[in-house]
Design brief:
Elements (H helix, E strand, L loop, with lengths): L1 H22 L8 E6 L2 E2 L3 E3 L5 E2 L1 H13 L2 E6 L5 H4 L6 E2 L7 H4 L3 E2 L4 E3 L1 E6 L7 H4 L3 E5 L3 H7 L5 E5 L2 H9 L5 E5 H10 L4 E4 L9 E3 L2 E2 L5 H14 L2 H10 L3
Parallel strand pairs: 1-5, 1-6, 10-11, 10-12
Antiparallel strand pairs: 2-3, 3-4, 7-15, 8-14, 9-12, 9-13
Helix pairs in contact: 2-9, 2-10
The structure holds glutamine.
Length: 251
């Protein structure tokens, strides 16, 4: 009996070793990283004139790639698919992605690199000014975002989801929704395009919480510490601030 047990134990530990070493390598060991984003969220990510993803996040992950000696290949996809795609279709995701508890069950986040908050976009002549005013209203949001979760908590709100935040803004201007909830900087970009029609109200007025963006990585990967070190170096050598100035501008 003892012999059989020893044999079983030996077999199990062999298998564990095999699985541990053979089947899954860490993305930290790769020379080329496939990085998912949703290029519909200016100034963080959008399609450049050449049809390729550009924006603050894209420039930042490329600068991180340079520090790590890795090539970065961007993969444009729906925001709502990013977290599930990590470890299969993509190695990492950078997409103005807010650190939240649910996502953190599935991915490991890097250190925060940007502070955000939800803004409310309204028609210029709207009287909505408080969270109570938003109750029962139809609110446009981007599917699977913290803007959607924020809207869902508003009493009796009729939440309408879109794949692109800009489509929600178009529906606001068409009168199909009464408000749009979306991250601060994209809200400012969208409103900047139609300043005569819409306005963006800071989320602090609605008591929305502060959010923080981070890079989503596979659970347990050594890449997290490497990205954090690269981020620190980019902040210390001025690259990070230069990218903020180039893509986001003065706060
Ligand atoms: N910051 C928001 C979130 O993480 C929106 C991100 C996005 O739409 N790219 O849900």
């Amino acid at each position: 009996m003892k012999k059989v047990l020893t044999l079983i134990l030996a077999a199990v530990s062999c298998m564990t070793m095999f699985v541990g070493c053979g089947s899954k390598s860490d993305v930290a060991d790769k020379d080329v990283l496939i990085v998912g984003t949703n290029a519909e969220f200016p100034p963080f990510e959008y399609l450049g004139d050449d049809g390729q993803p550009d924006g603050f996040d894209v420039a930042l992950i490329k600068a991180i790639g340079e520090k790590l000696g890795k090539e970065i290949q961007m993969e444009n996809m729906e925001f709502n698919s990013l977290v599930a795609a990590i470890g299969t279709k993509i190695d990492l995701a950078i997409a103005a992605m807010t650190v939240d508890e649910e996502r953190a069950k599935k991915v490991d986040f890097s250190d925060n690199y940007y502070e955000a908050i939800q803004y409310v976009i309204l028609l210029k002549d709207s009287n909505i000014a408080t969270i109570a005013d938003l109750e029962g209203k139809s609110i446009g949001v981007q599917l699977g975002t913290t803007g959607m979760y924020t809207a869902e908590e508003i009493k009796d709100a009729k939440v309408q989801t879109y794949n692109k935040a800009v489509d929600a803004v178009n529906d606001l201007m068409n009168g199909r929704v009464e408000a749009v909830i979306v991250d601060k900087n994209p809200a400012e970009v969208f409103v900047g395009k139609y300043p005569d029609d819409v306005k963006a109200i800071p989320g602090a007025q609605f008591e929305f919480p502060t959010e923080y963006y981070a890079i989503a990585c596979p659970k347990g990967s050594a890449i997290v510490a490497e990205i954090n070190k690269a981020l620190e170096e980019l902040k210390a050598d001025g690259t990070f601030d230069a990218l903020v100035a180039e893509y986001i501008g003065a706060e």
